[in-house]
Specification:
The chain has a five-stranded mixed β-sheet with strand order 1-2-10-7-3. A three-stranded antiparallel β-sheet has the order 4-12-11. Strands 5-6 form a two-stranded antiparallel ribbon. The chain has a single domain, classed as Cytochrome p450. It has 429 residues and is of the alpha+beta class. The longest helix is centred in the middle third of the chain and has 28 residues. Helix 6 crosses helix 17, helix 10 crosses helix 12 and helix 13 crosses helix 15.
């Protein structure tokens, strides 16, 4: 990832927080390095408002943590979101998932799926993740070149979550297209024609529903030892989940189960390339890989912002946020807040403590965080063990992943030399 812009590099137009899209969202020209923008906003407009779209952005750590934690004031429910009340946006209101409900329904749904993400269940995946990582690298190591995203960072987590769900990992291209469309939908919030957005959302949902309805029907007829079977036969207070509930779970797990890890692995390699002295530290001491993962999550947060809705009029940062307004907690800014992180623009693979908000906070703390961490640790440890002299294969500009709330690249071509004797963790000689 590009080095953070210096404060004196901040374009004059940004001193007022202005962008072509919204005055409270970093401009597209700063997608790879929004940190000078965040610095200015934390200093001058820590709780900033976009009058046109009734949208608020929160940049300081403590304010962001409150938005993420105080679910009674900042709700995950879509039915009170002003956007969802616009004509043609009924799909935003109809279907609920784990991340779009509050207690008590949130607790009920989380309990159902949490068994698949217990520490023991995640630990049991270590051997499989290790084998998959080595298999994917085996296909490219002899060539001395790879696209990190296409060849490892995307297929690894999506294969793991597909196997957990019980759907064919061979459908990865389809899953990727769905994931890209779902997370990229955030960029469409500013479309004037809500009907266009609603139609696109409806087409995507219909395609996904057709796919997963078939899987659900087959699991009802022939149960298997997979997550979809568990959801089909699960009960909440004596009642089975509806098809809408199960479909929402499938979409959430398919997307959330891969996006963070994909960006984590890609951002980690970019950070190590940008900071060769830190790469040397990790290579010399592989026990630093876990803290490397945490520092990448802080320094180049895979998810830059998380949205909530004001459930009532709320006082925040000396301003009143009206009920129904959307509030974006800018995790990427909070994780660079000097009030919490000493020397926040320094990348330090041994940083501790590191109380970043990359996985959220409170009751909506990412259920898949242990899995993402495990995948990141294994993939990075094996990459560092098997590859040396890693460099970008070209010096052309990188293309950011779609979705302004996300932080990563679509492709990352690399060239490298293979270690003469590769002995990755868990790999036989």
């Amino acid at each position: 990832m590009a080095q953070p812009a210096k404060q004196d590099q901040l374009p004059p137009t940004l001193t007022a927080g202005a962008t072509a899209t919204s005055p409270v969202i970093p401009p597209a020209t700063m997608r790879f390095a929004p940190y000078a923008y965040y610095t200015a906003m934390r200093r001058d407009r820590p709780v900033a408002h976009d009058d046109r779209y009734h949208l608020w952005s929160v940049y300081r750590y403590e304010d962001a943590r409150r938005v993420l934690t105080d679910w009674q004031a900042f709700s995950s429910r879509r039915d009170i979101l002003g956007l969802a009340r616009r004509p043609g946006m009924e799909d935003l209101r109809r279907r609920q998932s784990l991340i779009t409900v509050d207690p008590p329904r949130h607790r009920q749904l989380r309990d159902l799926v949490s068994r698949a993400f217990t520490p023991r269940a995640i630990a049991n995946l270590e051997a499989r993740i290790t084998a998959l990582t080595n298999q994917m690298l085996d296909a490219v190591v002899p060539t001395g070149r790879m696209d990190l995203i296409d060849d490892l960072a995307y297929p690894l987590p999506v294969t793991v979550i597909a196997e957990m769900l019980g759907v064919p990992s061979e459908d990865r291209p389809r899953f990727k297209r769905w994931s890209d469309q779902l997370v990229g939908a955030a960029d469409d919030l500013y479309m004037e024609d809500a009907a266009v957005l609603a139609a696109a959302s409806r087409r995507l949902r219909e395609e996904m529903d057709t796919y997963f309805c078939d899987v659900i029907a087959r699991r009802r007829a022939e149960p298997r030892d997979d997550l979809i079977t568990g959801l089909v036969f699960a009960e909440v207070e004596g009642e089975r989940l509806s098809d809408d509930d199960i479909l929402a779970f499938c979409a959430l797990l398919l997307v959330a189960g891969n996006i963070t890890t994909t960006n984590l692995i890609g951002n980690a390699i970019l950070c190590l390339l940008d900071h060769p002295e830190q790469q040397a530290r990790v290579r010399a001491d592989p026990t630093l890989v876990p803290t490397l993962v945490e520092e990448v999550l802080r320094y180049e947060s895979p998810v830059q912002a998380v949205g909530r809705v004001a459930a009532r009029d709320v006082e925040l940062g000396g301003q009143t946020v009206p009920r129904g307004d959307l509030v974006l907690a800018w995790i990427g800014s909070a994780n660079r807040d000097p009030a919490i992180f000493p020397d926040p623009d320094r990348f330090d693979v041994a940083r501790t403590p590191n109380p970043h908000l990359a996985f959220g906070h409170g009751i909506h703390f990412c259920l898949g965080a242990p899995l993402a961490r495990l995948e990141g640790r294994i993939a990075l440890a094996i990459l560092l063990d098997r590859l040396q002299d890693v460099q970008r294969a070209d010096s052309g500009p990188l293309e950011p992943t779609k979705g302004f709330i996300l932080h990563g690249v679509k492709h990352l071509p690399l060239r490298f030399r293979a270690r003469s004797v590769a002995q990755a963790p868990g790999r036989e000689r």
